[in-house]
Design brief:
heterodimer; B: 11 strands; about 60% strand; globular
C-alpha cells in the first residue's frame, strides 16, 4: 500500500463546480508534488511545494489552485474546469527538494477526475 | 527544455524471454535517473541511478546508467505475465527545486 493517500479516488464534476483534491503523507517528507496524467501519456508536473512553499508552477492555468496547509497535506482546488482537464491527478512526496537531493518520489494512487 | 526519450514505445514478448528497455535523456542540472513501473494506478519505484557504470539489481530486474552517453537501460530476464506494465523512465533535475521529468514509457506485454 502506498504511504501517500489521495482522496477522492474518483470525482465527476461539472464545469461550474468547485471541488478539491486532497493528499496526505506521514513520512516526514518536506517536498510535495502534483502531477497530471492523461490516458496513455506520462505524468506531467504541475506544482512543487518545498517546505510548504510553492517552488515550481509549470504554467498551470489559474483554474487549478494548489495549497499546502502543513508539511503533511497538499490540496488542489478546482474551479471552472474544462472537459480537457479530465485526467488522473497524482500526488507525490519526497524527502526534500533542495540541497542536492536526488531521491525517489513516492506516489499516491491518484484521483481520477472527469469534467462534464 | 528537458527531454527524456524511451524506446521501444511498446513490446510484446513471450514468458521466459529477456527484454531490454532504453532511456536516453537531455537535461540541465542532472541529478538522478529513476525507473518506475505503472500498472493501473500510481507509478511504483524500481531503481534510482546516480553513478555511471554501477548496475543496480533486484531479482530479475537490473539497470545501469551511462552519464557520458546520456542513457540508461532496464533489463528484465525470464519475463512473467506479471511484468506486463508500462515502464517509465524519469530524470531528476533542477538547480534549486528537484523535479522529475518522465519519458513516454514503454508498454510491455508478456504473453503466456
Amino acid at each position: 500500500d502506498t504511504e501517500v493517500t489521495q482522496t477522492p479516488k474518483h470525482l465527476v464534476m461539472g464545469m461550474t463546480n468547485k471541488k478539491s483534491l486532497k493528499c496526505e503523507q506521514h513520512m516526514g517528507h518536506r517536498a510535495m508534488y502534483w502531477y497530471k496524467q492523461k490516458a496513455k501519456k506520462p505524468p506531467e508536473l504541475m506544482f512543487v511545494y518545498s517546505y510548504e512553499k510553492l517552488s515550481i508552477n509549470e504554467s498551470v492555468p489559474s483554474r487549478f489552485s494548489p495549497e499546502c496547509p502543513n508539511s503533511s497535506l497538499l490540496n488542489l482546488h478546482l474551479h471552472a474546469l474544462q472537459p480537457e482537464d479530465s485526467a488522473l491527478y497524482l500526488c507525490a512526496s519526497s524527502h526534500r527538494t533542495s540541497g542536492g537531493f536526488t531521491g525517489e518520489l513516492f506516489f499516491g494512487e491518484g484521483s481520477r477526475l472527469t469534467v462534464l | 527544455e528537458d527531454k527524456v526519450v524511451q524506446s521501444p514505445l511498446s513490446l510484446v514478448v513471450h514468458e521466459g524471454d529477456t527484454v531490454t528497455l532504453n532511456c536516453s535523456y537531455e537535461v540541465t542540472n542532472f541529478r538522478s535517473l529513476l525507473w518506475y513501473k505503472q500498472e493501473k494506478k500510481a507509478p511504483t519505484f524500481l531503481f534510482m541511478l546516480t553513478s555511471s557504470g554501477i548496475e543496480k539489481k533486484s531479482g530479475r530486474l537490473s539497470s545501469i546508467l551511462d552519464k557520458k552517453e546520456l542513457f540508461s537501460i532496464l533489463n528484465i530476464t525470464a519475463t512473467q505475465t506479471g511484468d506486463s506494465a508500462i515502464y517509465l523512465c524519469a530524470v531528476g533535475s533542477g538547480a534549486g527545486s528537484y523535479q522529475l521529468t518522465f519519458g513516454k514509457g514503454t508498454k510491455l506485454s508478456v504473453i503466456p
